């Protein structure tokens, strides 16, 4: 799990562009929800990059294997 969604909320101070904050308020945008969503998306992106880096050798080895031997299902295709 990336984080505990049931963890209690914690008051936090952020410095944001005042015009942007006002426009969000005018549109009834919940800043807390938007910021939480943005942080989750950033964490996911960083974890994906981390995973790819940790597994780049295995991915490269597999790709070379497939180039050399093909896919196991190549003889089963009807298209």
Shape type:
elongated
Strand content: under 5%
What is the averaged pLDDT score? 94
Q: Give the quaternary arrangement of the chains.
A: single chain
Distance between the termini: 39 Å
Give the helix/strand class. Answer: mainly alpha
Parts with pLDDT < 50 across at least 5 consecutive residues? none
List SSEs in N-to-C order.
HHH
Total E-strand runs? 0
Query: For the report, how would you describe the main beta sheet?
Result: none
Number of helical elements: 3
Helix content: 55-70%
Overall radius of gyration:
22 Å
Write a concise keyword list for the protein shown above.
single chain, 79 residues, mainly alpha, 3 helices
Q: How would you sum up this structure, described in words?
A:
By secondary structure, the protein is mainly alpha-helical. It has helices spanning 18-26, 31-54, 56-69. It has a domain at 43-69. It is built from three helices and no strands. The mean pLDDT is 94.
Please give a quick description of this structure.
The chain is built from three helices and no strands.
Give the helices and strands, then pairings.
Elements: H1 18-26, H2 31-54, H3 56-69
């Amino acid at each position: 799990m990336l984080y505990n969604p049931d963890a209690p909320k914690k008051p936090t101070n952020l410095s944001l562009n005042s015009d942007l904050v006002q426009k969000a308020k005018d549109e009834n945008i919940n800043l807390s929800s938007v910021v939480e969503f943005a942080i989750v998306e950033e964490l996911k992106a960083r974890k994906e990059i981390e995973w790819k880096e940790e597994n780049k050798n295995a991915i490269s080895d597999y790709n070379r294997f497939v180039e050399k031997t093909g896919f196991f299902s190549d003889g089963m295709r009807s298209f």
